[in-house]
Design goal:
By secondary structure, this protein is mainly β. About 0% of the residues lie in helices and about 55% in strands. The chain starts with a strand and ends with a strand.
């Protein structure tokens, strides 16, 4: 099962991007949806997560700048990223936690550079 993530790209410091990730209709009973990122030479880290009911949590490094949201009818999770910094540069992966297992997206590159 392949999750389709999109929205990455090259942006200048201070800019914004919006990532989205849609789960296929074959995935049912989605619980938590989230975003992770992995920078070169570093471990994959949690960026933000959101429960079915809308409760959210964020990495300290992105609090106040990133906003995670979801559309349960569309089985889609979003990550609005504002005030981007060079240290936000990474490959961003979406994760869906469903009743039958965990599903990862293929990753989308975000590069913050002037």
């Amino acid at each position: 099962v392949q999750l389709q993530a999109s929205g990455g790209g090259l942006v200048q410091p201070g800019g914004s991007l919006r990532l989205s990730c849609a789960a296929p209709s074959s995935i049912f009973s989605i619980n938590v949806m989230g975003w992770y990122r992995q920078a070169p030479g570093k471990q994959r880290e949690l960026v933000a997560g959101i429960t079915y009911g809308g409760s959210t949590n964020y990495a300290d490094s992105v609090k106040g700048r990133f906003t995670i949201s979801r559309d349960n009818a569309k089985k889609t999770v979003y990550l609005q990223m504002n005030s981007l910094k060079p240290e936000d540069t990474a490959v961003y992966y979406c994760l869906i936690v469903a009743s039958d297992g965990n599903y990862w997206g293929q990753g989308t590159q975000v590069t913050v550079s002037s």
